[in-house]
Write a structure and sequence with these properties.
The protein is an alpha/beta fold. The protein contains eight helices and eight strands.
């Protein structure tokens, strides 16, 4: 179980394969294991780096106010501790919010960035959704929270086809569930996240999407409503 100090806490991490590094950053559940299905494919040509977020899984369960900026800062400190000067970054959901901060504040550390199923700031739907998830965790506890998350995160047909797999996953997540106050603080962090006015600093040199500007690395944005790709920084 490799863990490494990033100053004020220790993070659990994994390294797979060899080659130019690719850092996969998971969403709100914060577990590096979220990417288990992608590791064998990417490890054939890259060094794959995963980690459990601060407060999650096998990383230190720090009792501290959480912010997305701090989560992103932990990624930079992890790269420093592992001797990684630059990497491809792939961020899902909360990991995508962290990737936005990395692209804005530490562009020299990124070879490219993929942002999947993420957001720029919380809208009314987002606030309603996470107010409900917060209420479920606070009133009914972790087991109900995880069961509700399955219903909220996956389409009905996929749940029907993978019901037993999901039950096993919920049991695994419950066994390692962080103290609720940490999870609640992380929910507050994503509700507070808003870098929308700064995205104009992520500029490209070729074809422009909304919010395009000086950020010159290749970018891929994946979401439920569509996909946008900026090849070669264009």
């Amino acid at each position: 179980m490799p863990r490494i100090s990033i100053g004020d806490c220790h993070l659990y991490y994994e390294r797979h394969g060899a080659g130019f590094p690719v850092l996969f950053i998971s969403g709100l559940n914060g577990l590096g294991g979220y990417w288990r299905d992608q590791v064998p494919v990417f490890a054939k040509g890259f060094e794959v780096v995963l980690h459990d977020h601060r407060g999650i899984g096998q990383s230190d369960h720090s009792r501290t106010p959480y912010t997305v900026d701090r989560m992103a800062g932990d990624v930079v400190q992890l790269m420093d501790a592992l001797g990684i000067a630059k990497a491809h970054i792939i961020g899902h959901s909360t990991g995508g919010a962290m990737a936005q901060i990395l692209a804005l504040e530490h562009p020299q550390r990124l070879a490219s960035v993929v942002i999947a199923a993420s957001w720029t700031k919380a809208d009314a739907y987002f606030r309603r959704l996470f107010a409900l998830r917060r209420e479920i965790l606070g009133r009914l506890g972790p087991a109900a929270y995880l069961q509700a998350a399955t219903l909220l995160l996956y389409p009905s047909f996929w749940i029907s086809r993978n019901n037993e797999r999901l039950r096993q996953l919920e049991a695994q997540l419950l066994a390692t569930f962080s103290p609720p106050e940490i999870v609640l603080s992380r929910i507050d962090a994503i509700l507070a996240f808003d870098r929308s006015r700064e995205l104009c600093r992520m500029r490209t040199t070729g074809a422009h999407h909304r919010g395009a500007g000086r950020y010159r690395h290749p970018r891929l944005f994946l979401g439920g409503a569509g996909t946008a790709y900026s090849p070669g920084g264009g």
